[in-house]
Amino acid sequence: MKLILGMGCDRGTSLETLTTAVDHALAQINQTREAVAALASIDKKNDEAALLALSAQQGWPLHFFTAHQLAQVKVPNPSAVVLKYMGTPAVAEAAAILAAQTNMDSLLVEKYKYLGADGKNATVSIVNSKGLEN
Q1: Which whole-number Å values give the CA distances from 1 to 10, 53, 89, 120, in the listed order?
Q2: Is a pLDDT exceeding 90 seen at residue 86?
Q3: pLDDT digits (tens, 9 = 90+) for 91-109
Q4: Domains of the chain by range and CATH?
Q5: Rounded mean pLDDT of 14-37?
Q6: Nearest to 64 by CA among 88, 38, 91, 40
Q7: Crossing angle of helices 15-27/49-58, nearest 10°?
Q8: How far apart are CA 46 and CA 28, in angstroms?
Q9: What is the mean pLDDT of the chain?
């Protein structure tokens, strides 16, 4: 199984918070980081230090999508707060679906929310890429 992780986070979230959120989300489907093929997020996070560090540390390609692209994806957990600040009702779920080039049927973990010890929030969604070649 090849998994795509969609991720969202507060500005300045620590790498520890992101890795813990990823591990907790993966544990929900009895998977580990070894099953992950790529990360995806909103283009407004293309300078988020911990997200870039996680991608580099794990060797996972990181895909970014615009708010407009993300807003086209219907998701089960839209957020008014995310819409207000990011211009799209969802980041993690929509980014994972777009990166995997699939649809809601492949969503294994909806929006897993984690509040880290740093006081920052991270969200993770997991999609089965169904053999997507990376």
Answers
A1: 29, 24, 28, 30
A2: yes
A3: 999 999 999 999 999 999 9
A4: 3-128 (3.30.420.180)
A5: 98
A6: 40
A7: 60
A8: 27
A9: 95
Secondary structure string (H, E, C) spanning the chain: CCEEEEEEECCCCCHHHHHHHHHHHHHCCCCCHHHEEEEEEEHHHCCCHHHHHHHHHHCCCEEEECHHHHHCCCCCCCCHHHHHHHCCCCCHHHHHHHHHCCCHHHEEEEEEEEECCCCCEEEEEEEECCCCCC
72, 75, 81, 85: CA torsion to nearest 10: -30
Backbone angles phi, psi at 30, to 5 degrees: 55, 45
- Evaluate if residue 16 carries a pLDDT over 80: yes
